[in-house]
């Protein structure tokens, strides 16, 4: 919680943050950790504001902004209480010429109430500003400082004669002051946000459309839907996107009412691309929305739309059979959805045309994957390659031959995965034996595959003999080649299992020991450890082995 920073070091960090952005970032990480506020946050309000008020401070607005984040935090009540002792400091800061400092300090004044006199001062300031965007923060702060009085003067700012920006600001002020929503507030929000969705974007006191709609609707689902529909109907592009994003966020948490589903889906055909993209991402991520728009998604795939990959993936996810019509084209054209290999694996053996498409995609992936590119892209391509190799399964000789002929041109680690596939699917095939043998280069990992494919075991035996004793690949290969005919094999595996090697190596040795001896006790402890390994494949293999050993799993 304290990030290991002592109070005296915190004071030094505050002093550095007053002049340096990197230190400011570090201070924010310390005071706002993921698990809540720093326990000394309230006590640190005084030194932070002292630096903010110092004319020599280079970043006063950033310090004030940080205090605002602390005060707005769900656990920020002690910070809000502490701010009340600094009303004079904040008022002085709010009278400066620096717009950012004025904005941030004025926002903090809103936490310093109740204070009717200060509320009146800020209300006067809000009325006097010529720039509507500058009115937002003092208006909200004034309402916070004297909610009872604000109930009387806020309606004038909600009136249709006021600018859109001011009307939205007035709704935010009502909410921040804890006032009950009114029909006038709902109308002001709908009309104001439609015309000016940026009303709160350039001010310190910001508010999301979702929060304001929920407030103005007062918990009435029908009213909520009406407000969003009105903004979507009358709003400019950004306002419609805000509605789409609001509905998308809700869809990610819970199933939308039918009316809201219809409104969100209507944005798929919006004239503005940003709005369409927002709605589309929500539709392809939610089963209910995907099924509702399955025809639209299928049409998007058929017409070659830019989002066809994710559209086809969504159809696969909900089990819409139309995905099969486009599987072959996706493979041949190189836009394979993530779920396609798994879906193909669940079908009967592919026909010749589909198998050719799969083979072509496998060759393309295996010869182009570049581990030096984006890790995310590489991981996606590797998953696709492994999945498609599973689909090929017991491939006929022509398929095996094509892969064997391309093996030398394949990149790492695709070359290894394809070689493993060939060693099993092409056992005894001369082309496979020749291809793996040509690239083995004395490496145990390939010489083992050469042996499994039906090649000569002499090179493997020679490599095992000269490999380091704790080389896990050599030890596991020795167990496969020699079995229990060589008593030193088991001892070698135990040394690795019980040593200080990586968990992956120790787990591999334990699994080989169990295969060699048939004794569950040889592997049980290491398997239990591997169940919590940081690598997905290791955890999956550990679960499989735990089932075979009869071990209980959490």
From TrEMBL:
It comes from the Bacteria. InterPro entries: ARM-type_fold. This is HEAT repeat protein. It comes from Catellatospora aurea. The lineage of its organism: Bacteria, Bacillati, Actinomycetota, Actinomycetes, Micromonosporales.
């Amino acid at each position: 919680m304290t990030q290991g920073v002592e109070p005296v070091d915190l004071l030094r960090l505050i002093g550095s943050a007053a002049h340096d952005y990197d230190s400011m970032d570090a201070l924010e990480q310390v005071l706002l950790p993921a698990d809540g506020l720093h326990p000394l946050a309230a006590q640190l309000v005084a030194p932070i504001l002292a630096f903010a008020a110092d004319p020599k401070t280079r970043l006063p607005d950033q310090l004030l902004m940080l205090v605002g984040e602390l005060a707005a935090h769900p656990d920020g009540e002690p910070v809000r209480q502490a701010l009340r002792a600094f009303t004079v400091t904040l008022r002085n800061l709010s009278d400066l010429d620096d717009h950012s400092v004025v904005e941030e300090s004025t926002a903090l004044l809103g936490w310093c109430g109740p204070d009717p006199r200060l509320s009146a001062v800020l209300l006067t300031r809000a009325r006097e500003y010529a720039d509507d965007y500058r009115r937002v923060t003092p208006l909200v702060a004034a309402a916070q400082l004297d909610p009872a009085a604000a109930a009387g003067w806020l309606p004038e700012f909600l009136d249709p004669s006021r600018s859109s920006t001011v009307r939205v600001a007035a709704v935010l002020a009502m909410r921040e002051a804890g006032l009950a929503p009114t029909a006038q507030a709902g109308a002001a929000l709908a009309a104001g946000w439609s015309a000016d969705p940026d009303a709160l974007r350039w001010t310190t006191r910001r508010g999301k459309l979702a929060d304001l709609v929920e407030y103005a609707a007062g918990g009435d689902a029908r009213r909520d839907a009406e407000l969003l529909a009105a903004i979507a109907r009358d709003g400019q592009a950004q306002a419609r996107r805000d509605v789409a994003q609001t509905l998308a966020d809700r869809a990610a948490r819970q199933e939308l009412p039918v009316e809201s589903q219809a409104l969100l889906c209507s944005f798929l055909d919006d004239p503005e691309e940003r709005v369409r993209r927002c709605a589309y991402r929500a539709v392809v991520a939610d089963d209910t929305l995907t099924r509702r728009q399955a025809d639209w998604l299928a049409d998007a795939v058929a017409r070659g739309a830019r989002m066809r990959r994710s559209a086809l993936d969504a159809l696969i996810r909900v089990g819409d059979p139309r995905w099969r019509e486009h599987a072959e084209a996706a493979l041949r054209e190189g836009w394979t959805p993530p779920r396609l290999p798994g879906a193909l694996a669940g079908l009967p053996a592919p026909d010749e045309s589909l198998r050719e498409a799969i083979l072509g995609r496998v060759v393309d992936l295996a010869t182009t994957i570049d581990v030096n590119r984006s890790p995310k892209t590489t991981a996606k391509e590797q998953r696709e390659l492994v999945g498609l190799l599973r689909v090929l399964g017991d491939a006929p000789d022509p398929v095996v031959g094509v892969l064997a002929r391309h093996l030398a041109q394949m990149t790492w680690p695709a070359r290894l995965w394809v070689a493993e596939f060939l060693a099993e699917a092409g056992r005894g095939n001369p082309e496979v034996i020749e291809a793996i043998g040509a690239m083995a280069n004395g490496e145990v990992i390939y010489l083992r595959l050469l042996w499994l494919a039906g090649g000569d075991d002499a090179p493997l035996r020679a490599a095992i003999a000269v490999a380091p004793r704790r080389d896990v690949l050599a030890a596991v290969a020795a167990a496969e080649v020699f079995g229990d005919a060589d008593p030193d094999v088991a001892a070698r595996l135990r040394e690795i299992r019980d040593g200080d090697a990586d968990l992956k190596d120790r787990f591999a040795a334990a699994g080989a020991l169990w295969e060699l001896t048939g004794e569950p006790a040889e592997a049980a402890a290491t398997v239990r450890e591997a169940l919590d390994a940081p690598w997905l494949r290791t955890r999956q293999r550990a679960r499989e082995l735990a089932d075979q050993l009869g071990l209980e799993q959490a």
